[in-house]
Amino acid sequence: AQALYARAKRIRRGHPHVHARLEKSRQELAKLQRALERKIQGDAVDSDVLTLLPGRRKQKPPEKKAVPFRQFEVEGYHIWVGKSARQNDALLRAASPNDMWMHAKDYAGSHVVIRAHGQERVPAAVVQAAGRLAAQHSKARTERHVEITMTKVKNVRKPRGAPAGLVNVRDTDTLTIKLPEGEA
C-alpha cells in the first residue's frame, strides 16, 4: 500500500510538468512539419529548426584559447617558454617529439622548447638564445654561469601522478650559459 501511495504522490508532483513538456513537444513538432513542407517546396530551412532534430545542436564558434606559454622567435625558429608548472606540462604536451627541450640544471624554472620543424640540427645561435631564456626564467637568474640541461622532447617523460612541472629526462647534453653582469 505504501508503494502505491508513493507512486501516486510522484504522479501528482509531475503532473504540471507533463503538460508543459507535452505542449513544448507539440510546438516543436509543428515547427518541424512546417520546415518539412518548406523543404518539399524547395525553400531554405531555418537553422534554428535544425537544432530540434535529434543529434543536431547549434555549434558554438570555437573559443580562442590563450597560449599557455610565452613565445619568442630567433632566426625563424619558435621558442616556447612555460609560465608556471602547469603550463610547463601543457608546453610539453604541445611540443613535437623531435623538438629541443631545455631547463636550468638543478634549479626550479621554466621549461623551454625550440620548435625544430623537422630539422635534425638547430643552429647554435638559436640554442644559445633558448638557453639564455631558460636561465633567465629560472631561480638561477642571479648566477653568473648557469648550466642548462637539454635533450629532445621524446626523451622527457612526466611520471604518473607526479606534481605539475616535474619530469624525468634521459640522454641529456649540458650547455653553460654566461649571463651578463647586469642580469646576474
Enumerate the spans where pLDDT stays under 50 for 5 or more consecutive residues.
none
User: Helix count?
Assistant: 4
Please tally the β strands and state the result.
8
Ends apart, CA distance between termini? 84 Å
Described by the principal axes of the CA atoms, the overall outline is elongated
Whole-number radius of gyration?
30 Å
Number of domains: 2
Helix content: 25-40%
**Spatial strand arrangement across the major sheet:** 1-2-4-3-5-8
Please provide the ordered H/E string of secondary-structure elements.
HHEEHEEHEEEE
Q: How would you characterize this protein structure?
A:
This protein folds into 2 domains: 2-50, no CATH class; 69-178, no CATH class. Helix content is 36%, strand content 21%. It is built from 4 helices and 8 strands. It has helices spanning 2-41, 47-50, 85-94, 124-136, and strands spanning 69-74, 77-82, 100-104, 112-114, 145-152, 156-157, 168-169, 173-178. Strands 1-2-4-3-5-8 form a 6-stranded antiparallel sheet. Strand 3 and strand 4 form a beta hairpin. The protein starts with a helix and ends in a 6-residue tail after the last strand. The model has no long low-confidence stretch (mean pLDDT 83).
Describe the protein's topology.
Elements: H1 2-41, H2 47-50, E1 69-74, E2 77-82, H3 85-94, E3 100-104, E4 112-114, H4 124-136, E5 145-152, E6 156-157, E7 168-169, E8 173-178
Antiparallel strand pairs: 1-2, 2-4, 3-4, 3-5, 5-8, 6-7
